[in-house]
User: Fold these one by one.
Assistant:
Number 1:
Amino acid sequence: MSIVADNEIVLKDKEFRRIGTLVYKYCGITLNEGKKELVRARLAKRLRHLGLSSFDSYIDFATKDTNGAEFISLIDSISTNLTSFYREKQHFDYLTSVCLPALEKRKTQLGKKRIRIWSAGCSSGEEPYTIALTLLDYFKDKSGWDIKILATDISTKVLESAQKGMYTADRVAPVPTDLKNRYLTKQKLGPDMYYQVKPQVKNMIFFARLNLMEQWPVKGPLDVIFCRNVMIYFDKPTQEKLVGRYWQLIEDGGLLFTGHSESLTGIEHKFKFVQPTVYEK
Ligand SMILES: C[S@@+](CC[C@H](N)C(=O)[O-])C[C@H]1O[C@@H](n2cnc3c(N)ncnc32)[C@H](O)[C@@H]1O
């Protein structure tokens, strides 16, 4: 075991570039110079744990197998997973007031009461659970609807939390009280209070690890795709390719929601602009 402290392990420019190339090729994330200290600090913990004294030796070790645990752990440490319940609430208001009424009408006319939504880059689950709560609330007095949400992320660490569906009281603070009472169970664990998402909500969601840069085992057509605060880490060509792939999967009239700072301006796409961060096929 190495005796150097995390902050004494130096990340050389050459090593940082090596990690950058690797991460970009594997998952599209662009690591600019500003991320160097973050990458160093996060990976230094792994180096220390493994008893390695240089980043080069760590990269050699982690890349022996890109399906291996250490490579997955490297990607987990690089990804930024910030999220929250009802993040960018205007999207859920738009779902309730515009999108779902239109979907309900269209699907009822077609005799297909089926809704399929994808949360691409779902992080620790707050986004797909918020989608589920929004739909449960909207359809609470309407029967016969088959609603499924696919929730995917590249990080196994966040997916594990997502699948657990257990959140502290401050995490669920943005959830409206009536929905909290109906769909979450309050639990005391040690000195802390937690909220457990009920099976009724969990059963609407299928969680899976998926790298957006690879093949997708997703058939479609989908009614709505949420890909929010994910493309911000990708360069323009990668974003353009991804948005094109979303277009193929979405049904006519379906929607793509992006994050607050992810306008599709400057990339070629076929979506119709509805309002900032909301696009329609
Ligand atoms: C900042 S979080 C956004 C979470 C949520 N969509 C939201 O807006 O609150 C970005 C997520 O994208 C995931 N991600 C980044 N690159 C990815 C890729 N190539 N494939 C799948 N997920 C990716 C990260 O692991 C992370 O959990």
Note: The pocket of S-adenosylmethionine is lined by residues 27-29, 79-83, 87, 121, 123, 127, 153-155, 158, 210-213, 228-230, 233, 259 (CB under 6 Å).
Number 2:
Amino acid sequence: MQEALTNISKYARAENVSITLSGNEIISLLIVDDGIGFSMNAMTRNMGLNGIRDRVTFLQGEFELASKPGRGVSIHIEFPRVSYFRRRSSDY
Ligand SMILES: Nc1ncnc2c1ncn2[C@@H]1O[C@H](COP(=O)(O)OP(=O)(O)OP(=O)(O)O)[C@@H](O)[C@H]1O
Ligand SMILES: [Mg+2]
């Protein structure tokens, strides 16, 4: 959420930002802005969004990013509240 909001404040020029955090066993986080958006073809090796993806992957979750120029950005993340690793170790 911190990285998504930092990006919005740096680039989006958004009027509205919506943050939806929901779920229990599976935690879902949806962050949508209505700013300038960007072309997904221009996605580079920057640390920010790729860092989110890496951390979500590590938590065995899913990361979905959608944007088009002029159409804002939407980021949807889902991950299990208790990670596989912690479930495993608490079994013993
Ligand atoms: N909410 C947004 N609205 C408009 N453009 C965005 C938004 N989020 C990201 N971008 C664009 O996508 C690019 C990649 O974002 P990313 O967070 O991966 O890298 P960064 O912010 O440029 O660098 P870093 O996060 O490493 O400081 C940004 O440079 C910006 O052009
Ligand atoms: Mg960033």
Note: The pocket of magnesium ion (ligand 2) is lined by residues 3, 6-7, 48 (CB under 6 Å).
